[in-house]
Every structure is written in C-alpha cells, then in structure tokens.
C-alpha cells in the first residue's frame, strides 16, 4: 500500500518506535493529510499528544487577555460597566471554544488556524466610536470584506509575494516592539503597586528559565513553566492576588446583548453605522495578511519538509475568521477576529498540527469561561505579561532573525523595520513588499523572475488599499483623517 493512499491511522507508529521524541513528532506531521471542508476525527485523522496541552494553555491565556483588553476598550467608549466586560469575555470564550476551536479547526478544516483576536485594532476603538461606528456593524463589515479576500485567494497570493527579507523584517519589528512594550507594562504595574522590585525578579527568572529551555530544545514548555514561575515569584515577593470572578454563564441571547437597555445598550445598527465603519473594516482585513504570514512562517521553520499536509491554509483561515467575526458579533461578542497567534506560535514550536490542540483549547476556554476563577489568574499582570513575552514576542523576534540570512535580505528587513516604525506594520509590510518585488531593494534576481502582475500590479494595489485605509482613519503621521 502506498504512503499517498494510506490513512493516518494506518501509518501511525507508537512513540516507542522512535529514538527521540522529536523524531516521533516529525513523523506524525509527515503522515497527516487533512480533508478540506470534510469530517476529520481525533485518533482517526490525527492524534492528541501531551505537547498539545501547551499551545492550548497559551491560547486560553492569550484569549482571556486579548478579549478583556478589547471588551474594556469598547466599554470605556460606550460607558459600560466592568460587569459588562467580564460577561462579554465569558461569552467570547464559549463562542471561540465550542464553535470555532472544535467545530472548524478540529473537525471541518484542520488546515485553518483558530480564529483569535485582532490586537492591533484595539488602539483604533476610540476612533471607531468617535466616527459613529457600531460594534455589530463593524463586525459584519469585517466579515464581509474578509470573505471577499479569501474567495479571491488574495491572502495566499500576498503571502507568496512577501519575500524572506520582508517577512524577517516584519517579524523582528513585531517581536522587538512587543517585547519592549510588555516589559514596560510589567514595570509600570509593579511601580504602581509600590513594589518596583517585583518586575525585576519576574523578568530575571523568566530570562534564565527561557534561556535554559532554549538550550535543551524545550522551548515549547516556556509558556506554562515561565508563567507559573512568574506568578510564584510575584506572590513570594509580596504581590497581592485574589480570585473575584465567580462561576456562571453569560447571557446567551443576541436580543439581550443588542437591546436598547441591556448588553451593549446600543440597539441594532442602522445603515449610517455600516457606512461609518467601512474604512476601519478595510484596515482590519488589510492587516490580516502580514499577521497570517507571520503565523505560517513558524510552521515552515519548525515542521519537516514533508509536512505539507498540515500547513495552515491562509485563504481558508481567512474564511473561518470572517465567519467567526460575523457569527460572534451577531451573538453579542466584542471580539475582532484574526489568526490566533498565541495558539499557532507555541503549536509550531512544539511540532504539533492544529487540530489536537484545538480540541484542548476549546475545552480550556469553556472551563475558564464557566468557572470564572481561571480568568482572574490569566489576567494577573505577571502571568499574562510573561505568557505574551515567551509565547509570542520572543519567538517572533527569533523567527525573524532566522529569516535574515544574507546581505540582500538584511537590507530588505532593515527597510521594512524602518517603514513599520515610521507608520505601522501594515504600511511597512505593504511598502517593502512593493519595493522588494520591483527589485529596488533586496534580491534583484528574484524580482526579475516575477511576472509583471506579481512584480508591480498586485503589490501596488495592496499598497494603495493599505495607505488609503490608513489615510481615511487618520493613521498616517501628520495627516488629518480624511473622514
């Protein structure tokens, strides 16, 4: 029987058949081939391993943190209470866990990453509210534009046209800025509680443990181990902590969330609300490509070459994120969706495919939402900052540095980082991709091999759309918003 026609169940071998755990995990990745928009089942089409618990735990922590930040930003603008934030986070954990982590990523299409939270949109929420935007209208429009991009295969095309220098520069910038930002927030928090020494103790322990895990090739343990130690160190150094969120279920009726006097207290959106959010929705979807690109890169760097069957499909992931956005918004959620980085990055490092950990992520999200108390622990400053540091930003920085291999790619990466710092990562990615494909920077031989559409037309359209969306909402330095 040929390997091509054999199923995962037939090709699977016990871990004891391999000399090392890495060999077993790489063999698992090489024998899986998922059904696209079909029924994929655990232990028939893929396995669930102890390593899957790590990305699941990281994803759950990341989800609680990011959705809390987004819900709180909306609540501030619309004058909503802290109780609204807590209940909306519970709702989002149930939506993300049951409908999309399990149903889509684990069963229907395991080549799609889980639909997470669009962090870069959080600073724009005040602008959205000031422009007369409505959260439900925004969610629906993001979903519609996302479906259009995925249907046209635009996402995968843009990823294909992003050279190694562009990818490396983008990842280095995102990693470095995020790392510095998280350290600064931890220091600010410890100073605010009049225990400035706590941040030093937490970061010192994190650096030592992370360095050791990297040395012994066990970085996939970084999130749970470093987060646990961060919490222990902070507590032992006198940092106060208490559980306050009690067990329960959020309101599950959309009529409650979109009522005039309940939930968001905004009612259902009108036509003017949809018009107001169009530029923000365009910008949100424009940001997807560099985000998705960074996550797929981690799989390519950590998986064996024969693992094509388990790689993330960018267009299908955009489809799922779009559906998740529309469904989640209609149900009352505050989340703006994107590829789930706090899941994909540790999963790739642990050499695990998407579906096994997706099931565990769904279970953990539901438990966290229903029990309530895990939400308090995940949102405690030393735990969440260290989880983001070792689970997202340090790996981003390392992956970017691995991709900058020669003078040409370092030139492109440098220009990308400069452009990102000048405006933001969307502008930096779009501009550098255009310059790189035209042969003005980077590998000129690569540019010469490209067709005219790939060399100029598609990158120029992407650049114009990105810059236009940024200009509309006032995100270009020194230039007032056009709206």
Précis, in short:
The chain crosses the membrane at residues 54-79, 91-109, 121-148, 168-184, 196-213, 220-241, 271-289, 354-371, 383-401, 413-435, 455-473. This protein is mainly α.
Characterize the structure shown.
- This protein has 22 helices and no strands.
- The relative contact order is 0.19.
- By secondary structure, it is an all-alpha fold.
- Helix content is 68%, strand content 0%.
- It is globular.
- It has one domain.
Mean pLDDT: 89
Count of distinct strands: 0
Distance between the termini: 63 Å
Sheet with the most strands?
A: none
Strand content is under 5%
How many domains make up the coordinates? 1
In which range does the helix fraction lie?
55-70%
Unreliable segments of 5+ consecutive residues: none
**Helix-strand pattern:** HHHHHHHHHHHHHHHHHHHHHH
Organism: Shewanella gelidii
Keywords: Membrane, Transmembrane, Transmembrane helix
Transmembrane segments: 54-79, 91-109, 121-148, 168-184, 196-213, 220-241, 271-289, 354-371, 383-401, 413-435, 455-473
Protein name: Membrane protein
List strands and helices in order, with pairings.
Elements (H helix, E strand, L loop, with lengths): L7 H4 L9 H11 L21 H26 L3 H27 L16 H6 L4 H17 L2 H7 L3 H29 L4 H19 L6 H15 L17 H4 L13 H16 L1 H15 L11 H18 L9 H9 L4 H18 L1 H6 L2 H23 L3 H16 L2 H14 L5 H6 L2 H21 L11
Helix pairs in contact: 3-4, 3-15, 3-16, 3-18, 4-16, 6-12, 6-14, 7-13, 8-9, 8-18, 8-19, 8-20, 9-10, 10-18, 12-22, 13-15, 15-18, 19-20, 20-22
């Amino acid at each position: 029987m040929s390997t091509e026609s054999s199923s995962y169940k037939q090709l699977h071998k016990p871990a004891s058949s391999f000399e090392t755990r890495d060999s077993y995990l790489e063999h698992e990745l090489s024998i899986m081939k998922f059904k696209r928009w079909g029924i994929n089942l655990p232990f028939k089409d893929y396995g669930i391993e102890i390593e899957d618990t790590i990305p699941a735990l990281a994803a759950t922590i990341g989800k609680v943190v990011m959705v809390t930040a987004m819900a709180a930003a909306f609540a501030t603008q619309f004058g909503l209470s802290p109780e609204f934030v807590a209940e909306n986070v519970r709702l989002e954990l149930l939506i993300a866990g049951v409908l999309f982590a399990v149903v889509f990523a684990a069963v229907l299409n395991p080549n799609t990453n889980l639909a997470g939270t669009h962090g870069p949109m959080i600073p724009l929420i005040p602008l959205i509210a000031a422009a007369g935007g409505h959260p439900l209208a925004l969610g629906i429009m993001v979903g519609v534009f996302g479906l259009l991009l995925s249907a046209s295969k635009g996402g995968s095309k843009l990823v294909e046209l992003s050279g190694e220098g562009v990818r490396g520069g983008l990842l280095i910038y995102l990693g470095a800025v995020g790392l510095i930002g998280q350290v600064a927030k931890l220091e600010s928090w410890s100073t605010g509680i009049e225990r400035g020494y706590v941040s030093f103790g937490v970061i010192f322990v994190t650096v030592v443990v992370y360095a050791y895990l990297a040395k012994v090739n066990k970085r996939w343990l970084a999130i749970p181990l470093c987060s646990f130690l961060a919490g222990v160190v902070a507590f032992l150094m006198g940092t106060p902590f208490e559980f306050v969120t009690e067990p329960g279920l959020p309101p599950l009726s959309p009529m409650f969330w979109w009522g005039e006097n309940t939930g968001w207290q905004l009612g259902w959106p009108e036509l003017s609300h949809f018009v107001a959010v169009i530029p923000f929705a365009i910008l949100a979807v424009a940001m997807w490509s560099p985000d998705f690109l960074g996550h797929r890169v981690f799989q390519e760097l950590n998986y064996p070459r024969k693992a094509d069957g388990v790689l993330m499909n960018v267009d299908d992931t955009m489809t799922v994120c779009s559906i998740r956005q529309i469904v989640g918004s209609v149900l009352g959620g505050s989340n703006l969706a994107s590829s789930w980085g706090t899941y994909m990055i540790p999963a790739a490092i642990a050499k695990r495919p998407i579906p096994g950990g997706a099931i565990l992520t769904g279970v953990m999200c539901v438990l966290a939402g229903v029990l309530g108390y895990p939400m308090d622990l995940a949102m405690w400053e030393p735990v969440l900052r260290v989880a983001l540091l070792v689970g997202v930003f340090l790996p981003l920085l390392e992956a970017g540095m691995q991709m900058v291999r020669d003078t040409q790619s370092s030139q492109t990466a440098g220009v990308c980082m400069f452009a990102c710092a000048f405006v933001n990562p969307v502008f930096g990615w779009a501009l550098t991709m255009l310059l790189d494909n035209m042969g003005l920077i980077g590998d000129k031989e690569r540019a010469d091999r490209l067709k005219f559409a790939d060399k100029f037309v598609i990158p120029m359209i992407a650049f114009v759309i990105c810059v236009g969306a940024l200009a509309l909402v006032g995100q270009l330095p020194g230039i007032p918003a056009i709206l």
